[in-house]
Specification:
With 92 residues, the chain is mostly helical. The chain has helices at residues 3-27, 29-34, 46-90. Helix 1 (3-27) runs antiparallel to helix 3. The protein starts with a helix and ends with a helix.
Length: 92
């Protein structure tokens, strides 16, 4: 795989992870309670949004990118081993 394709794929996976994580966090019952979807906005707490949202954003960006990078590294390592074993078999 070319380096540009790997980098572009990692960025795309990271962006999708951010969108998915923020969407799931916003749709959860717990977040809806904090945003005031209770009776007459009881329990409205925007402090929870300010403290949780940055962590959700970072986790959504970092976790998919790390998994992508690990997969690329493992595939490259496996491909390197198979090429080196073929090269040593042909040298005899």
């Amino acid at each position: 795989m070319k380096r540009d394709a790997v980098t572009g794929g990692g960025c795309l996976v990271s962006a999708a992870g951010v969108v998915g994580a923020v969407w799931l966090w916003g749709a959860s019952d717990r977040t809806q309670r904090h945003l005031g979807n209770e009776f007459e906005n009881n329990g409205q707490d925007f402090g929870a949004v300010l403290t949780e949202l940055p962590f959700v954003f970072l986790a959504g960006a970092v976790v998919p990118a790390a998994v992508w990078g690990l997969g690329v590294w493992l595939l490259g390592r496996r491909r390197g081993r198979s090429e080196s074993s073929r090269a040593s078999a042909h040298s005899c």
